[in-house]
Amino acid sequence: MTIDLADAAPEDANRFSVLIDTRPDFKTGRRGLILRHPYWSATKGESDPPLYYADAVVKWADSMRDTGNDALPFESKAEYTDPVAAGDDGVPGQAPYEGKWLASANRVRVGPDKVDTGWVVVVQERRDEVLQPVRNLQWRLGYVGLVACVVVLVLVALMWTGMVLVMDTSSRSPVTRLLRKWAGLPTSATSGATGTFARGSSLPGAGTARLGATITPGTDGPRTLR
User: Considering the domain boundaries, does residue 4 fall inside one?
Assistant: First the structure.
């Protein structure tokens, strides 16, 4: 396998893959050397390019080998810090790779027996870029919920106002009369009072008063018996 370390610039700087060697470096003996990364594209022609090491990836690979669990999750996958941005041992970090990343790691194994090569491929993507659609959806749902609450409050206020107008018998508003008529209630307070008075002074009552009187001969009119 041939890896071109100089030409590693991805088309999308917010999402790319990284190749890491978890075996000891033959010069320093340190593990986790980053063999392929977009920063290598900016080191063309340099005799002594900066070297970076991914200690978190080495720790994860060792845990997977020790436990034999091929499904062991990468602990730093939700908030991964690019070692190239952090810097190490006097080597300054590079600002273009700062920030939080979402990362997924997988060991490189070959052959039917899945022989471990000691290499690990990490695919990383900027956390903000991935979560931006989720945040947009949250804002939209929040706006929809706010509008729904306002509509419900307006409807409740209108219903309460309508009930107050219907129960107010002293109002002479055409709207109030229409609502009371639609609800089957008297349109005004005077109509109810007039109807009661008319019933109290109807003809049957007058007839009863006349039945209680007698005519005495020799008098000018009826006298009431006591």
Answer: no
